[in-house]
Design brief:
Shape: globular
Oligomer: single chain
Length: 708
């Protein structure tokens, strides 16, 4: 149970989650400062952290750069500020003055603390928000700024929160890096002294980094050790700065926006930062991931209780060459395979014959769909499947009717070139008229045709991110764009409660807790090569649950890498998330169709474990051995092990058994395929040796069910 307690004599606030504690107080200068974040403490025990700050050893040190709840620009502070403001008179500093606090229950099972402050001179108010939940150790933090004056205030930096770690001998930073088609590559490196900046300057979350970090003392493993982590719920540009100070402390601050842009806060206006959620846990990186997965299911996703359907996507089969007859024939093959949701990808609208034209003209192409989309949608529904559609609402082709009519609607800077990437420009969603246009055609499209699902894509980063119609537009774009994007999706879903949405940005360019709070799943990478996907999916799982991860079985040789692996291996890799089929079913042989139907049916029997169970990464992907992950039912009654091995073990090297976890220790489990019965104790302590086919690209799915 989560509790918020206060000690009036020392001014200490204690936030208690089911297994952890977070403590802070307002110091003698009026600044909110951190006390503790870690294992559970009582309010009496927290008092031991309340000490007077030691004087700086020299006139060059100033206030410690780690330890404030929201470091500001002002006074003897020399670390990275979380809050930088510039007032109309040119003053750039901020001085804390506490004005009160509030504790309330925003929803059953949750508690929220709000600490209110203002600047000592100017009428700028700052409220620090902390929210805890009875069922999670995740602490949600955000900041609200309000201009109560009659002159604008420039917010040059407004992070959501700063986090401080307890003193340790060493620190290690875990995060993901990558690029298009190689996202979420996990990195674990010792934290260097100084400042380490993780950021996106692209207007989207980005393929190159993701807004979360994990820190440990350098001794944590998958199953042991203390881990501190935090994730930012924001789908635009962002920045997280991790510090390791000369005196050995560590902490980090994070929020929306990168360096440079500032937001002008007008008189009476209020700005709310995105949530920056933090988690401390024991039990290593695996326990941290499972805690994040549980939090995402309980407090982020719109419909976490739903089982994701098996999707078929038409892209590899048809490319831009789509028409009513071809899509109906393809849908019939998908239905026979066991697919539950048929998605028609790019090429169905306007003058879209390639990526060089048509974006923005979102009406069905008359010569390809002479009766509109309704006959195709009705046929897909008749086949027993839901119908989905690919859209890219934020983009426009220069060769389109929309651009010819509204060339001012794109992000651009006067007298500068308009950079085309993938032959397209970015529509300025920060403009109210652009957002209204997008909402209008989307809600009509979904409503008029009975669309069940949208694959919402976004295939390029920002450039020339200007807004010439507004004096401060170049700064406002970065924030308002994302808020309008969220608003369009929220309104669309309110209009059509049955609608489900997949977030995509050329693959994993926009995956974060912000977009997942209003969509149902994400496309982690355009790279569908099963061998590469094992690594991509391993990095994805560090924070995001398998239920949100769309994973397709596509054809070989793979379009991107040219690699060929068996159909069984491709299925077993895709079964680690929300399974989809992306291959050209017209090219599949009868044997492949039969094998695919069998494997798809097998996934349906175990997907409740993948999508609703707890995940344990039994063995990380390495070059010289199998990778394996496990999904366990909440009651321990059944489990699924997925195993993938790129290359057969060298002759003479013994294979290591897998040791499943999370099972009922007093139970026995039957292998659903072989009928063999195993004791949970033997499985846990001695392991199981999955039967892998001989040769390279071997894989297995082992489904164990508790014997009554």
């Amino acid at each position: 149970m989560s509790v918020i307690a206060f000690a009036a004599d020392t001014g200490v606030w204690l936030l208690s989650t089911p297994r952890t504690s977070y403590a802070l107080r307002i110091d003698a200068t009026g600044a909110p400062c951190h006390l503790a974040w870690g294992p559970a403490l009582t309010l009496e025990e927290v008092q031991e952290f309340v000490t007077e700050p030691a004087p700086p050893p020299s006139s060059f040190e100033g206030r410690p750069s780690v330890g404030d709840e929201l470091p500001v620009d002002g006074g003897p502070r020399y670390g990275p500020p979380s809050l930088q403001v510039r007032f109309a008179d040119g003053t750039r500093a901020f001085e804390w003055q506490a004005t009160g606090h509030r504790v309330h229950e925003p929803a059953p099972g949750s508690a929220e603390l709000v600490l209110d402050f203002r600047d000592r001179l100017h009428p700028l108010r700052v409220a620090l928000h902390y929210r805890v939940h009875d069922d999670s150790d995740v602490i949600e933090r955000w900041t609200v700024l309000r201009n109560d004056g009659d002159a604008p205030v420039a917010l040059q930096r407004a992070d959501s929160a700063a986090w401080t770690l307890p003193l340790r001998d060493d620190y290690r930073l875990s995060h993901v890096t990558g690029q298009w088609s190689a996202e979420t590559q996990l990195r674990r490196d010792l934290l260097p002294f100084g400042e380490t900046v993780l950021t996106s300057r692209r207007g989207i979350t980005s393929h190159h980094a993701n807004p979360w970090v994990m820190l440990d003392a350098g001794d944590a493993t998958e199953n042991h050790g203390q881990v501190w982590s935090a994730a930012l719920a924001w789908s635009g540009s962002w920045r997280i700065t991790v510090q390791r100070t000369p005196d050995g402390r560590a902490g980090f601050t994070g929020g929306a926006g990168h360096e440079g842009p500032s937001l002008l806060l007008g008189p009476g206006e209020e700005y709310t930062t995105p949530v920056h959620a933090g988690l401390y846990c024991e039990g290593g990186f695996g326990a941290a991931s499972r805690a994040w997965h549980a939090y995402t299911l309980a407090h982020v996703l719109p419909h976490p209780q739903e089982i994701q359907p098996v999707i078929y996507n038409s892209w590899e089969a048809t490319g831009f060459d789509v028409d009513e007859a071809g899509q109906k024939a393809l849908a019939a093959r998908a239905a026979a395979l066991g697919v539950e949701l048929y998605v028609m990808d790019d090429g169905w609208f306007g003058g879209r014959r390639s990526e060089e034209a048509g974006l923005g003209d979102w009406t069905p192409t008359p010569d390809r769909f002479p009766r509109g989309l309704t006959p195709l949608v009705e046929e897909v529904h008749r086949l027993g499947m839901r119908f989905g559609l690919w859209v890219e609402p934020e983009m426009v082709s220069p060769d389109s009717d929309l651009y010819r009519k509204h060339p001012d609607w794109v992000l651009h800077i006067p007298h500068r070139a308009r950079t085309e990437l993938r032959n397209q420009l970015v529509l300025n969603f920060a403009r109210h008229d652009v957002a209204e246009w997008a909402y209008g055609w989307l809600t009509r499209l979904v409503g008029d045709h009975g669309i069940d699902f949208l694959k919402w894509d976004m295939n390029r980063a920002f450039s020339e991110a200007g807004w010439p119609d507004r004096a401060d537009g170049a700064d406002e774009v970065w924030t308002t764009y994302v808020h309008h994007l969220y608003d369009v999706i929220d309104r669309l879903r309110a209009d059509h409660p049955h609608l489900r949405i997949e977030a995509c940005s050329g693959g994993g360019g926009r995956v974060d807790l912000g977009i997942l709070s209003r969509t149902d799943q994400a496309w982690p990478s355009d790279n569908t090569d099963a061998a590469d996907r094992v690594t991509i999916q391993h990095g994805y799982s560090q924070l995001y649950p398998a239920r949100t991860m769309a994973a397709w079985v596509t054809d070989v040789p793979n379009q991107l890498t040219g690699r060929s692996v068996p159909l069984r291996f491709r299925f077993h890799v895709a079964m680690a998330g929300a399974l989809g089929i992306g291959g050209d079913l017209f090219r599949w042989s009868d044997a492949e169709l039969a094998e695919g139907a069998g494997l798809l049916a097998e996934y349906k029997r175990v997907r409740h474990l993948v999508q609703q169970g707890t995940q344990h990464r039994l063995r990380a992907p390495v070059d010289d051995g199998p990778a394996a992950t496990q999904y366990v039912a909440a009651d321990g009654g059944e489990t699924l092990l997925l195993v993938w091995q790129r290359a057969s073990s060298p002759h003479g090297r013994p294979s290591r058994p897998l040791r499943p976890t999370g099972l009922d220790p007093a139970a026995r489990y039957r292998d659903a395929r072989t009928g063999a019965v195993h004791s949970a104790t033997v499985l846990r302590d001695y392991g199981i040796q999955p039967e892998l086919p001989p040769g390279d690209w071997a894989s297995a799915a082992v489904h164990l069910i508790r014997v009554p």
